[in-house]
Amino acid sequence: VTHEPPVSHLYRRQQLSESLPDGIDALLVCAAENIRYLTGFTGSNGSLLIGRAGDATLATDGRYSIQAAEQAPDVECIEARAVGPALVARAVAGGQVSVGFEPDAVTLALHDRLSAAAEGGKLVRTEQLVERLRAVKDAAEIDALRVACQITDVAFEQVVLKAQVGVSERDLAFALTTAMRQLGAEADAFDPIVAFGPHSAIPHHPPSDRALATGDFVKTDFGARYAGYHADLTRTVVVGTPAGWQRDLHAAVRAVQAGGRAAATAGASPSNLDRDAHTGIEAAGFRMAHGLGHGVGLQIHEDPFLTPASPAGPLAAGMVLTIEPGGYIEGSGGVRIEDTLVIRDGEPELLTNSPRELIEIWVILAASRPY
Ligand code: ZN
Ligand code: ZN
């Protein structure tokens, strides 16, 4: 897969400059995903200073100087060992005396060093300034997410639907990772969750040596990362003919997932969507031990969160998020169905499109055998 989405880091930095709260002369950006979003720089050590006038300075160490110049050619780069303090000292010396910082990305130890560097000026807490911009994706971001989701869908078809009885959860997880890399993924979006039989009742079960057996649910939650962007897909299939309780559980989750997708439109309230999903699962007699979904982008979990106490405002067109209700019966099994989708004014645009019905993989395996 080759894909070069056009990205305007300059436009994003302008948006940020214009959204700086009164009383802040410059913002020190320390979160790696935020630096990538604003400049394109992907090194592991960097800090970025954005001024009110749109001025931008990226600090990194000698290991990343060449990379920074290539990835962020339109940003002034300086070399420093302690990147954050160097930028803060520079800002204060240059008259930007009030420097905002991101509390989520700054440890107490770093805060001490930043405070020392800010002598003569002051540090000011900010809240989610870059994250708020990141919540609504531009066309280049949606392109990258679309590719990540396509890779994930194909891996599901190639690996999960062809799983053999006897394979272990670990084997299947490794096969998913391998398939996605061969299809063009740069990495897993997160460690794949593969759960057979009773393990499927554990929402985030880590793959074990358990071997796949007839009658098992197979719950897989995984995704590809492409150009920094994450896909997130969960499907639950069954080996052989499902038992009555498996059909009922799957049908209940599938109906709630379809309802959640239909209701996920611009203007919808994240906490109401979550509440309605829990109500639906509980009305069917099952339990859902997690929120309905989350934003996806440069991070696998990001704003907006679809949870009871979500601080997120109404959904907006261009947000990308998951809808992932589940029902779990401890000791027996569980079902989750999860899609990644783009919020639009009407129906959301689905980025993951693997089949949502209860697929019986033993039937497919038997039918495809040449003997
Ligand atoms: Zn997931
Ligand atoms: Zn998810």
Describe the protein's architecture and organization.
It is a single chain. By secondary structure, the chain is of the alpha+beta class. It is 35% helix and 20% strand. It contains eleven helices and 19 strands. It has helices spanning 9-18, 32-39, 65-71, 83-93, 108-117, 129-135, 139-160, 169-182, 244-263, 270-283, 361-368; strands spanning 26-29, 46-51, 56-60, 76-79, 98-101, 122-125, 187-188, 193-196, 217-222, 224-226, 229-230, 233-238, 293-295, 302-306, 320-323, 326-329, 333-336, 339-342, 349-350. The strands form six sheets. A six-stranded mixed β-sheet has the order 4-3-2-1-5-6, sandwiched between helices. Strand 5, helix 5 (108-117) and strand 6 form a beta-alpha-beta unit. Helix 4 (83-93) runs parallel beside helix 5 (108-117), helix 7 (139-160) crosses helix 8 and helix 9 (244-263) packs antiparallel against helix 10 (270-283). The longest helix has 22 residues, at 139-160. The radius of gyration is 23 Å and the shape is elongated. The protein starts with 8 loop residues before the first helix and ends with a helix. The relative contact order is 0.12. The mean pLDDT is 95. One zinc ion binds at residues 232, 294, 322, 324, 338.
Quick recap of the structure?
This protein has eleven helices and 19 strands.
